[in-house]
Amino acid sequence: MMRYAVLYASSTGNTKAVAEAVAAALPAGEVRLEAIGPDTPVPAEETVFVGFWTDKGLCPQDVQSLLQKLGGRRVALFGTAGFGVSQAYFDAIAQRTEALLPEDCTLLGSWMCQGRMPAAVRRRYEGMAHEHPDDTKIAGFLANFDHALSHPDEQDLARAAEFARDIVNRQ
């Protein structure tokens, strides 16, 4: 049996890239990497890294369902969020996601980074800007979208790998 499971949900490929970096940082031959789906079984591994994308400040339903079944496991969370580069925003997402874990889970840590968003999001922001040209908040949305285009970048992936190595080294 593998010692580590790296399970992830990825809508745009961002979280998949981070999951691959996490898995590559774990001991060779001791890790299983798998996408989360609606019927993902509870992993046999005691240490589970769970990756997710963010929608309206929370992980998707498939991830929520899986997290609630991870009783007795050691769990590390990682995720991507298109909106915002604020650590406080990332921390709030992590805290909401951590709250889904059963009480008998051991939370090993959480890590988040920005991820690029689909082009449809920019088109929606552009439409909003056209309707409300003086709204500086919408201009901020557009600037954030453009900033997110390069993420997760190599530095983000290196930090994700460091997060995974730190988890292993603490066990």
UniProtKB/TrEMBL annotation:
It comes from the Bacteria. Residues 6-164 form the Flavodoxin-like domain. GO terms for molecular function: electron transfer activity; FMN binding; oxidoreductase activity, acting on NAD(P)H. InterPro entries: BilS, Flavodoxin/NO_synth, Flavodoxin_CS, Flavoprotein-like_sf. Pfam families: Flavodoxin_3. This is Flavodoxin. It comes from Lawsonibacter faecis.
